[in-house]
Automatic annotation (TrEMBL):
<feature type="domain" description="Major facilitator superfamily (MFS) profile">
    <location>
        <begin position="22"/>
        <end position="480"/>
    </location>
</feature>
<keyword id="KW-0472">Membrane</keyword>
<feature type="transmembrane region" description="Helical">
    <location>
        <begin position="59"/>
        <end position="76"/>
    </location>
</feature>
<dbReference type="Pfam" id="PF07690">
    <property type="entry name" value="MFS_1"/>
</dbReference>
<keyword id="KW-0812">Transmembrane</keyword>
<feature type="transmembrane region" description="Helical">
    <location>
        <begin position="240"/>
        <end position="258"/>
    </location>
</feature>
<dbReference type="GO" id="GO:0022857">
    <property type="term" value="F:transmembrane transporter activity"/>
</dbReference>
<feature type="transmembrane region" description="Helical">
    <location>
        <begin position="367"/>
        <end position="387"/>
    </location>
</feature>
<feature type="transmembrane region" description="Helical">
    <location>
        <begin position="145"/>
        <end position="169"/>
    </location>
</feature>
<feature type="transmembrane region" description="Helical">
    <location>
        <begin position="88"/>
        <end position="106"/>
    </location>
</feature>
<feature type="transmembrane region" description="Helical">
    <location>
        <begin position="279"/>
        <end position="302"/>
    </location>
</feature>
<dbReference type="GO" id="GO:0005886">
    <property type="term" value="C:plasma membrane"/>
</dbReference>
<protein>
    <submittedName>
        <fullName>MFS transporter</fullName>
    </submittedName>
</protein>
<feature type="transmembrane region" description="Helical">
    <location>
        <begin position="209"/>
        <end position="228"/>
    </location>
</feature>
<dbReference type="InterPro" id="IPR011701">
    <property type="entry name" value="MFS"/>
</dbReference>
<dbReference type="InterPro" id="IPR020846">
    <property type="entry name" value="MFS_dom"/>
</dbReference>
<feature type="transmembrane region" description="Helical">
    <location>
        <begin position="314"/>
        <end position="335"/>
    </location>
</feature>
Length: 497
């Protein structure tokens, strides 16, 4: 099909009700990418026992996915721009399904970690293609706000849905089906993409894929996250920890230098250089750290302290996606009227209050009084934060850069989640050790030490929500009319003829 014919089909599809069916397909695909970061969390002890994985290596069931995903996202976004967003969307779905089968059928820890790594690699193709398809499909301001609210709800709520699905599958079928379930879901999404997602015209390619940039940013991120993980076992001052963190920082600095000099950069620095987008990306880096603090340590609290079954633990998280769905819907209505800054500020404040509430957990506290209100506040805050940062990060981006801009937003969230998991786990482990040392004669010492460590992690998570507030206040300056102008200016760029 010629470029003109593709553009005509795309324009026609965007003006028809099929674009809402395309949104359903895109959101469905995004769901499996997001929930796969958490669906295995509740299954971890069962996989560890069946495959004889050591305690020190168990974390790689999570980090093998998030590290590769976050590290390769920028390359995946540029490939979406150059090779076609719809094409890379479907390649990502097929590859993700195959990698999920490899991990789900693993016979040892090594095979499981390799499968999870491949999942992350194909998710790095799928995720930026999905978000950039959405950004060029919905160009009218109010429709885009609605589409972004759906996408944000899926992105933020998918982690909680993953907990629920993981608990049910682990308890009633097998931990393996937390991975194998992706194959039929991806098959449905591929059929939907063929039927409802319009073909797009790839951006003209003027050079290569900036392999030096891809290598330096990926290895740099892996080094930093692995350094945080090592700190939990060997301490912050060990040569291994400091060496890994130093190598990571140096490689990321080299990456910036490579991008400045490259004729065809993996990340054009003009994208994060605009103040609104830069602010949105910083928020996207900080908020998942706080969110993962809640998911990770509440999961431990439910199962280790209250003795919840895997399914009960998953159900306990159910108010979270419900709260996000409500707040994202309200945000989509208000965003074109009052702009993103007041909504995002309100969301961050709710997040701070919710995590400070959780940080008061003690032995014997009930779910209804100690957890549910705090969880609901955090959920209501996440809706405006996710919708707002996605709207700001993607508006007024040239169509040729929409894939890499989407990838940068996804990368910020994945890196934040990976770094946050490693960092807050290290902080929590040290807090538990200190509590045991300082309180040797206390009754129920193990349980009290665990709860104390969770509370410390919740305080740290609240700190990341708090850090987002001045960033939003000073850097998110878009007015409602700016978002509308941005949407209108993209119409011509998104529909080449």
């Amino acid at each position: 099909m010629s470029d003109t014919a593709q553009a005509a089909e795309t324009a026609q599809r965007r003006g028809s009700p099929a674009r809402w069916l395309a949104l359903a397909v895109i959101a469905f695909a995004q769901l499996i990418v997001v929930l796969d970061a958490t669906i295995v969390t509740i299954a971890l002890p069962f996989a560890q026992r069946d495959l004889d994985i050591s305690d020190g290596n168990t974390q790689w069931m999570l980090t093998a996915y998030t590290l590769i995903f976050g590290g390769l996202l920028l390359l995946g976004g540029r490939m979406a721009d150059y090779l076609g967003r719809r094409r890379m969307f479907m390649i990502g779905l097929v590859g993700f399904a195959a990698a999920s089968a490899l991990a789900g059928l693993a016979q040892n820890g090594g095979q499981l970690f390799v499968g999870r790594g491949f999942q992350g690699a194909f998710a790095a193709l799928l995720a930026p293609a999905a978000l950039s398809l959405l950004s060029v499909t919905f160009t009218e301001a109010r429709e885009r706000a609605t589409a972004l609210s759906v996408f944000a709800g899926v992105s933020a709520g998918g982690a909680a849905i993953g907990m629920l699905a993981g608990g049910a599958l682990t308890e009633y079928v097998s931990w393996r089906w937390t991975l194998l379930v992706n194959a039929p879901i991806a098959a449905i999404a591929v059929v939907g993409a063929l039927l409802f997602v319009a073909r797009d015209v790839p951006a003209p390619r003027t050079g290569g894929y900036d392999i030096p940039g891809a290598v330096t940013v990926t290895v740099g991120l892996i080094s930093i996250v692995y350094g945080f993980s090592r700190a939990a076992e060997h301490g912050w001052t060990s040569p291994a920890t400091l060496g890994l963190l130093a190598v990571g920082v140096v490689l990321l600095a080299v990456f910036v230098g490579v991008e400045r000099r490259s004729e065809n950069p993996l990340l054009p620095l003009r994208i994060p250089g605009e103040i609104n987008r830069g602010g949105a990306l910083l928020v996207a880096l900080l908020i998942p750290i706080a969110m993962f603090a809640m998911f990770l340590f509440l999961s431990f609290y439910f199962q280790n302290i209250h003795g919840y079954s895997p399914l009960q633990a998953g159900v306990a998280f159910l108010p979270f996606p419900i709260g996000i769905a409500v707040s994202a819907g309200v945000t989509s209505t208000l965003l074109p009227r009052i702009g993103p800054r007041p909504l995002m500020l309100a969301g961050a404040v709710l997040g701070v209050v919710g995590l400070l509430w959780l940080a008061q957990l003690g032995l014997g506290d009930s779910y209804a009084l100690a957890v549910l209100p705090a969880q609901s506040l955090i959920a209501l805050g996440m809706g405006p934060l996710f919708v707002g940062m996605q709207a700001v990060a993607l508006h007024q981006v040239d169509a040729a850069d929409s894939g890499v801009a989407s990838a940068l937003l996804n990368a910020a969230q994945q890196v934040g989640g990976a770094v946050g998991t490693a960092l807050l786990t290290t902080v929590s482990v040290q807090a538990a050790k200190d509590y045991v040392t300082d309180n040797p004669g206390v009754s129920d010492l193990a349980a009290r030490a665990s709860i104390h460590s969770y509370d410390v992690a919740f305080y740290a998570g609240a700190g990341f929500f708090l850090a987002a507030i001045p960033i939003i206040a000073l850097m998110i300056r878009d007015k409602p009319e700016n978002l509308i102008e941005g949407a209108e200016s993209e119409v011509g760029a998104a529909l080449p003829v």
